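Run log // design_07
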């Protein structure tokens, strides 16, 4: 949520990282499921 970062913060965003001005549409749970990291 880069829109809310403090003005003095320099985000460390790598070439393969995603950055979002606001919340992404994919939930944290959905991200974990997609990466095979979800435990029921």
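design_07 sequence
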């Amino acid at each position: 949520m880069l829109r809310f970062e403090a003005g003095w913060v320099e985000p460390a965003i790598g070439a393969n990282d995603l950055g979002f001005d606001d919340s992404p549409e994919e939930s944290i749970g959905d991200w974990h499921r997609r990466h095979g990291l979800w435990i029921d």
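The CA atoms of residues 17 and 23 lie 15 Å apart.
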